[in-house]
């Protein structure tokens, strides 16, 4: 079939966005993987599918497929692209929409200045619900957070890193580093992603604290690799930093592809993610 698509990005985190409201879409993991392939397909970190909701009270259903073809729970930067897409395509005239995701309901809002704010819901901090297997580990308290030792096998040697385990609808392991530019993201990112302590795999965040409201962040995303930005990763990093006593809300997060702003009032409260969404081009592909 000929598939119509829109290429978009949020702070460099890029997407293929597909209208599943007016097109019938039922693809296999291999077909999603082909779309995400940068040589043989369109190329993207994630493919976003806009569908009619199955839950009453929601405006749309939002599904996310990583470049490896696997479906995942949440994507913060993608949710902003989602809002811009449905607005530009005339699928809604609302400024604030209620969206059904695999991780639950989110409520993105189109701001007057063109940026988009997403209520990402409250973070999940209980290890078992992230999910993270903390059995037998001795956590280290820092502020209101517990840092967990994660042992990594590096070429016959063992190295332990301290991580915060946070779920923003998808699991994150956040560590603080001295310098994100020299952090071993490509080396240890895959080891953290596939660590046995995370049964659903995990996104590995590397955060450098610049001051109490400003950080740099790199994220090695499960099923994708390092991306230029990660919205849920930015949320998880800000939450971890605030809980550790290192940061104050709001937090500016500098990713390699752009800036995001994260606001969080504390445990039990929702995290708000604000940032840009850009349409790059539209096209068709035989799939």
From TrEMBL:
Organism field: Duganella levis
Catalytic residues, chain numbering: 75, 230
Subunit structure: Homodimer.
Entry's EC annotation: 5.1.1.7
Protein name, per record: Diaminopimelate epimerase
Keyword Cytoplasm part of the UniProt annotation: yes
Subcellular compartments: Cytoplasm
Keywords: Amino-acid biosynthesis, Cytoplasm, Isomerase, Lysine biosynthesis
Enzyme class: isomerase
């Amino acid at each position: 079939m000929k598939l119509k698509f829109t290429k978009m990005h949020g702070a460099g985190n890029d997407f293929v966005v597909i209208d599943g409201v007016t097109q019938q879409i039922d693809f296999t993991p291999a077909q999603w993987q082909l779309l995400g392939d940068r040589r043989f397909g369109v190329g993207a970190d994630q493919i976003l599918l806009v569908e009619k909701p199955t839950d009453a009270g929601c405006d749309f259903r939002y599904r996310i497929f990583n470049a490896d073809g696997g479906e995942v729970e949440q994507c913060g930067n993608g949710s902003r692209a989602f809002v811009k897409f449905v607005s530009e395509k005339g699928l809604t005239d609302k400024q604030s929409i209620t969206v059904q995701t695999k991780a639950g309901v989110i409520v993105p809002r189109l701001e007057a200045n063109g940026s988009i704010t997403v209520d990402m819901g409250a973070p999940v901090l209980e290890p078992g619900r992230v999910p993270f297997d903390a059995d037998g580990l001795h956590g280290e308290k820092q502020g209101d957070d517990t840092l967990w030792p994660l042992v990594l096998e590096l070429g016959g040697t063992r190295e332990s890193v301290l991580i915060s385990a946070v779920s923003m609808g998808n699991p994150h392991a956040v560590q603080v580093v001295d310098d994100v530019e020299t952090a071993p993201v490509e080396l240890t990112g895959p080891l953290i992603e596939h660590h046995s302590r995370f049964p659903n795999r995990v996104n590995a965040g590397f955060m450098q604290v610049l001051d109490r409201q400003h950080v740099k962040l790199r994220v090695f995303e499960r099923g994708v690799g390092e991306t230029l930005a990660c919205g849920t990763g930015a949320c998880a990093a800000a939450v971890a930093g605030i809980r550790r006593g290192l940061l104050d809300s709001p937090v500016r997060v500098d990713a390699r592809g752009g800036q995001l702003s994260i606001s969080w009032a504390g445990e039990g409260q929702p995290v708000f993610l604000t940032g840009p969404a850009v349409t790059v081009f539209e096209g068709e592909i035989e799939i």
